[in-house]
Every structure is written in structure tokens, then in C-alpha cells.
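re the bet — no i am not wrong, look at it urself. input seq straight from the record:
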Amino acid sequence: VRLDKAAVVLEGVEVTADRSMIELAPDRNAYRARDIAPAATNASEVLGSVPSVNVDADGKVSLRGNENVAVQINGRPAPLRGAQLAAYLQQIPASVLERVEVIPNPSARYDPDGMAGIINIVLKQNVDLGLSGGFTMSAAATDRYSTSGNLGYQAGRVTLFGNYGYNADERGLSGINDRERYGVGSVPIAITEQDIAGTTLNSGHSLTSSLEYRPNDRDMLFTGFTGNIRSSGELSSSAYSELSGERLLLNRYDRIRDTDASGRMIEYHAGFKRTFEPQRHELTTELRINLSDDDDRTHLWRQPTIEASSTRTEAEINSTEASSRQLTGQADYTRMLATRTKLETGYKGNARWLDRDYQAERDPSGSGIFLPSNLSNTFDFDEQVHAVYGVVSQGAGKFELQGGLRAEQASRDFVLGGAESYPFSYGSLFPSGLVMYKLSDAQNVKISYSRRIRRPGTQELNPFPFFFDSHNVFFGNPELSPEYTDAIELGYQRTGQLGSFQVSPFYRRTSDVIRFIINTADHVEGREVTSVSFRNLDNSSSWGTDVNGSLRLGQRINGFASFNVFKMVTEGGTDESTLSSDAVTWSARANATAQLNSTLTAQAMYMYRAPMNIEGGRFSRMQMSSFSLRQKLPGDKATVSLRVVDPFNTMAMRLEAGDENILQITERKFGVRAAHLTFQYTFGSAPRLRQRRPEPAAEPQT
């Protein structure tokens, strides 16, 4: 009996055994979004369920404990950075995520940014024939709401896709910020206690659209648009108590913080792809333009609580206006030179311009008259990076070999206050290599190497002080150099009917490592403050291992667990022994899913990160759990989910920093705990046949 293939879209038919929730490849692990986080509402929540990936309460993403990870969307760098990226990920609906790829040691083909590697978020393409789409609504009792809708259409040579999402998230904020100063014999001489309470609100709209047109069988024109409008706010009160060394109350007052921020981002892209031979000989070119604007206004003031007077004093108004433009062009060429020999080469150029205007006004006496502060400044930044790369992959018996080199020329320049300029140019080479040996159809071992770079961010470069409150200040260092990391990783993978197992020992050595320096006895504008700044230290070495495993017990129970342990040694230099550190830390994560019956699914997740020493301080442990139920409704087109996040209210942060003269303890709770109720509905067109196309020859995995 001979069966021919034909592409068919069937309504009401769900295949559950076609692929596992985890796919292991020589250079990456891929996790299906619907399996690892079936009740998640946004991309940030999905990432928080991926092994070795952590998302903190601010939405910052880290891989193996390292926040310097490159986040990509469909293989391209995410359009935003820093806090804006965290907000953007919270506005991408989870329903449009296909999978998350973790690439800890990328080849020279990829941008070298991201010391810890790359996290690639792959969105659904909705290329099925006809019309398909869906919408999702989610709400939590703590004033958190989200809704999204997507629509796809494919007919003939045209494919259209669009998605809209809205997200609003209000949560409580609480914590402490205590300082103790010591005299001779470590006797306390002054104590300041700060209790923080308030609320934060983040909301935003996002819109994504794409168009593909095939004028013939081998060419494709594509274009797309992404838009994002976001806003955030914070209203918090910090209750200060100033005490003597004997803990006698000397003064008490409140510091009020009222912040409003808004931002807009628009990105366009257009490109052309020619397929000379499917998956064997292809050329892709693309041009991308990104425009973004951000406005931030913060009002701070002091209000006495001991005296009957409610007069505001030490009032401040800090406002920031920033605009960013980015232009990216790239061309990628792939060709199979022989049956198991592949060449990948290309060029990428990126130019970025940032203008930031920071205005600070002060009213020390509370008269209502605000005067300009000497902390006001302007920051004009531009950066250009041009790169070419080449990667050759070769199969030889049971071996798969890959070697590559990326050459870069980069420059940056920024001007402070329209006067002082800080130009800096540098060239870099980024080699990469991979050797994999196939023990059997189910087992392989590998070793890989890559060189990565971390370029200082604009906030890390700007030397003007930025006050978070009257006792805590942040400023950058314009002399920072990029840091480089050489990474070697071993790997053993085994897959079978019951699941998969992977162990990955790794070693990383970083030169000119950038670290934040905490000075608990700094002086700015005539007052003693705790400052956070940045400095290039000598080097940092880390080594450890990742262990990941998945288990599938029939069609009803599956899950995965991951364990990561590493040791990090940082050397500050011959005169910087106080900035050195030697720490061992570990983290673990487990996720289990059970099909209780044909329509009801349950899932549980737990994450733990052990305490970690840093230069001049120590972070406490961090842990969180979540539980969810997902019920399919009759017709298999709609589901209702209940997800409880952090039910035991354990998600918190604690940092102890200081020396023999002073100790500062900072704690924060970010109000993560919530119960989300989500409704999701999908629809699609009736079954249709697509004309069969010639199947390309199988390509070896490299």
C-alpha cells in the first residue's frame, strides 16, 4: 500500500502525539508554549515556565541566572530593550506563541549580543488555507485584565495575519530599605528605617500585522508592521524613621512618589526571499525601521508625620523625554554545497540614534515655586555596528561539524549637555564551532564554542545622577568598555518514548566584566546616599551544568524538570579586592501536566533560585509556584482556564549590601499573587486541499 501526502485542514480534530513538548536539537532546546504554560495570558508568563529561564517581578528575563540574554522574536532582535522590553513582553498574548527556543551557545550566524545566549520567541504564522483566528479574554480579582484577537487568511499567493492585544495590570508594592551606620567596634551610631507601600499600574495596546505575496513559485515578498502604545504609573509612600544608635526616635516623615510614564513604538519591515531550491539554496534580504518615544514624569516630596503640619518640603519634579530611531538591513544566503555540506553567509548593518532630555526641578521649602536643578542634562547617543559572517556545516559519518566566524566593526558616540563628547570605536572577531557525534538514533554528544559580547547600555554610560529617592541614586560610567565572553559547552542528549534527558556542563570566561558597584556611603549634592554605579572589572569565570529532563507517561501525564548549578568567580583587579566575589548558586524548576479526562487539564509549576553572593552584597533566595486548570468547552473551539500565580505569596527580593561601616537591607514584594480566569475561542475555515509541492531532499541536522 502506497500513501501519498496531501495538506488538509480538518475542523474539530486534535492530534496529541505528533511531537513532544520539548524538542532537542544540536544547538537549541524548543518548548511548545501551549504545553509548558497552557493557562498563561502573555509572553512573559510563558517565558517564566521555560527551564533555565527566569522572569523576575519587574519582567526582566535571565538565562542561567544571567540577565544579559538576547531576546528575539521570530529570529529577529526584539524591538525594545530594558524596562520597555519587559512591558512589551507582557502585552504579547500567549495565544499567538508557537514555541520558545533556548540557544545557550549560538553560532557566528547570530548577533553576538547576549552573553548568556539567545531566547527566541516563535509566533504562530497562521498559514493554514482559508480564514482562521481567535480571541482571548482574561481577568484577575486584583484589577488585572487582558484581551487579544488574531485573524489569519491564506488564499492562493497571498497570506495575511493580524493581531491586537490589550493588557492592564495593577498590583501592590511593598518593602523596606533600612540603613545602619557603625562606629568603632561595630557599634551602631545611626539608623534609618524606610517602609514602602503603594501600587503600580501598567497598561498597553499592541498591534501586529504581516503580509506575504508570492509572485511565482520561488519568490516571496513580505512586509509587516508592529505598533505598541504603553503607559505606567506608581503611587507609593515611604515612611522614614530616623533613629539614634540606641534606637531612640529622632525624626519621622513620609516621602511620596507619584510617577506617570508613557511610550510609543512603531516598527516596519520589508523583505524579499528567493528560493532557488527549498531548504538547500535560498537568499533573504530585509530592511527594518524602528521608531520609539518615551515620556516619564516623577513627582517626589517629603511630608512630616510627627508635627501637625502637612506642609510639603523637599519637593522634586523629574521628567524625561526620549526618542529612539533604529535602522537595520541584512542579507542571508544559504546553499548546500554537497549532500552534507552547507554554507551560510551574510551581512548585517545596524544604526541606532537616541536623544534623551532629563529635566530636574527642586522646591526645597515647599513654597510651590520649582527652580531648575544642576542635575538636568541632555544625552545624545548614536551607535553603528556592521558585520559579515560565514558558517560551514559538514557531515561525516556519525559526526556533524560546524565552524564559523563573524567579523564586526562598531562605533559609538554620545554627547552630554551639548558639549562633552565620548567617541569609541572597536573591531571584534567572533568565532564559533560545534562538533556532534551521534551515538544512536536516540543519543548524541556534542561540544560547542562561541564568543559573545555585551555592549554597555545607555543608562550605564550616562554619568549624570538619577535619584530614585532622597537616599538612593543611580549613575553611569562613560568610560565603560564592552565585555567579551568565551563560552564552551558540552552536551549529552537522549530521547525515547518516555521522554528526554539532557545534561550540559559549561564554562564561561568574561574579560572586562561590567558589574554594578554599590557604595553605601557616597555623597551627592551634599547628602549621604547609597549609590549604584558601574565599572569594568578584570574578569569573571563561571562554570556549572544544566540538567533537563522530560517525562511522558502515556497521553495523560507529562512534565519536565530542570536543575542548574554554577560557580562564579569575579576578580576586581590588583587594587580592587573588595569588588571581587566567589559564589556558588543553583536553581531548579519543575512542571507537571495531567489530562484528568478528555476535556480537563491540570498543571503545576514550581521555581526556586538559591541565594547568591555578588560584589559587595548578597541576594536572597527566590521562589514561586503556580497552579492551573483548563477546561475545553463543547465543540473543541473554546476553553476556560483558571490560573493561580504565587498562591503562597513567596515571590520577593532581598538584598544585603555594605561593609564594616554600613549595612543596607532592601526588600521588595511586587504583588505577583493573583488568580486569573481566561476564556479563549478559536475558529477556522472548512477543510480545503492545497496543491502539493515537490518535497525537498532531507537536510542533515547541523
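see?? The domain at 22-690 is CATH 2.40.170.20 (Maltoporin; Chain A). told u. also Residues 1-18, 686-702 have pLDDT under 50 and may be disordered. so pay up
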